[in-house]
Backbone:
C-alpha cells in the first residue's frame, strides 16, 4: 500500500533503547556531566574558604568532581585542582581550551574524575544527590590508605570540612 513504511515493527513498545548508555560512546563528553558538579550549584566560596593554607590569592571555581576535588582558575589564568583525597593543589591546564580538551578525553576523565569508580559505586546502590559528594569514612589520611569499601554519600559541606581539617596545608 502506498504511503506506509514497510518492514517497521508494529509491536515495538519503546522508541529509545533499553539503556541510553548503548547509544552514548565512552569517549562522548556528555558522560562527564554526571561526574562533574557545577560550582554554581554549591556554595563554592564557602567550601574553598576552609582551605586557607592551600588556596591563596583569588581563585574562580569551575566545578567539583563527584569526590569533591575542586577545579578552579587562579589569578594567572591557569586551571588547577584542589585534591581532597591526598591534599595539595595541582596544575591541570594552562588555559580554558586545554581544560576543555582534557574534559573531552575519556582517559583524563577516568584519571581525574574517577568515572569507572563512580559507575561501580552506582552498581552498589550508592548514588549522590544534589549537594552531595562521595566521601570516605574514615578519610584516607586517617586510615592511611584509600579503601574503596568505605565510600559513602556525604553532604558536600561536611565532606569538604573533614578533608580540610585533615589536609589543609598538605602540599
Residues:
Amino acid at each position: 500500500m502506498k504511503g506506509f513504511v514497510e518492514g517497521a515493527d508494529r509491536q515495538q513498545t519503546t522508541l529509545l533503547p533499553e539503556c541510553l548508555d548503548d547509544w552514548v560512546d565512552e569517549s562522548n563528553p556528555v558522560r562527564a556531566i554526571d561526574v562533574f558538579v557545577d560550582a554554581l550549584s554549591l556554595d563554592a566560596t564557602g567550601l574553598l574558604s576552609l582551605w586557607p593554607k592551600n588556596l591563596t590569592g583569588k581563585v574562580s571555581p569551575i566545578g567539583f568532581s563527584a569526590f569533591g576535588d575542586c577545579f578552579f582558575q587562579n589569578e594567572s589564568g591557569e586551571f588547577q585542582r584542589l585534591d581532597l583525597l591526598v591534599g595539595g593543589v595541582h596544575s591541570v591546564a594552562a588555559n580554558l581550551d586545554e581544560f576543555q580538551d582534557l574534559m573531552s578525553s575519556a582517559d583524563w576523565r577516568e584519571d581525574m574524575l574517577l568515572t569507572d569508580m563512580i559507575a561501580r559505586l552506582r552498581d552498589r546502590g550508592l548514588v549522590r544527590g544534589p549537594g552531595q559528594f562521595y566521601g570516605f569514612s574514615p578519610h584516607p589520611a586517617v586510615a592511611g590508605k584509600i579503601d574503596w569499601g568505605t565510600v559513602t554519600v556525604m553532604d558536600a559541606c561536611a565532606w569538604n570540612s573533614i578533608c580540610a581539617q585533615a589536609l589543609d596545608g598538605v602540599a
In short: The beta strands are 36-38, 59-65, 70-74, 79-82, 89-93, 132-136, 151-155.
